[in-house]
Amino acid sequence: MIRADHDLAFMLQYENVAWYEQGAVRILDRRIYPLRTEFVTCHHHTEVAQAIADMVTQSAGPYLAAGMGMALAGWECRDMPQAEASAYLEKAAYTLSHARPTTVVRMEAITSACLEVGRKALEEGRPVDEAIFAHTLEEINNKYLRIDKTAAYLAQQFPAHGTVLTQCFGETIVGLMLRQARAMNKDIKVMCAETRPYFQGARLTASVAYDQGFDVTVITDNMPAYAMSNDMIDLFTSAADAISCDGHVVNKVGTLQLAILCNYYGLPYFTTGAPDKGHPTIDSVKIEMRDPSLVLEAMGVRTAKEGVKAIYPAFDITPPHLISGIVTNKGIYSPYDLNRYFTD
Fold first, then answer.
1. Which residues form a coiled coil (predicted)?
2. Catalytic residue among 241, 276, 337, 344
């Protein structure tokens, strides 16, 4: 297999996202990277689910972690009778796919495929963990190849010379869009909004851009209007945690306000990702509310007086009229015509 993660930043290499080996799953702790490079080692699939819930990994990281978690579940049931092992894998698939509520539909696609592979291995008397691991590795490689097509369509929208604003951490698309931009000889600079409370933009997106040799600038979450009004930004792009088939984008909270600003200042906003069949309308999406105490601190340091309250919606919803296009591996679609993605 030719690996599609070549020439990408450290944290986009498969082994540095999530990796199964010898009865354990190792996950890069993105809550503290790049200040420290440490891995959380999980010895049970429920620990993988908890790591996903606790944001040890985020963006697309949980999808790979879920597959590796299923391989670990395959190891855990290695000595069980076939029927019992099959039921065990099914329960593990549910646990891993439901680690975070907003991404259940996408996670179920990952764990269901792993479950099928695991059951086939059980029937054939092959090691279940090895079968699921091989499947997961092939799937992540295929995913990178598929997203590389998306990255090419997106990079074509970049100006020859200009600055691209990102939001949060879009995982693979960040590294691949920059790799594609370089291949197209586009002189791109990157501006990252910090995205509190985990500062993914500042810590993760900026690290990837820097590692890949790009000029990158971090701004706080309340600076985009200043940057746009002073002609510092040419295009805004984000990934999506969910895209409903009626054209709404669910992404890291703060995406909506950036889309509103782009609309006001006449800048394009392109979302990357495929529409979700499991979300025919936006009404089917549940917005995750996380621990509000995280808003009252910065990297573990309390910033608000005791007794002060907070809220922490993990995502917000951007309506289709604020989106210039949904960039997919099949091309760029109008948010009002997403069902065509499934028939093209």
1. none
2. 241
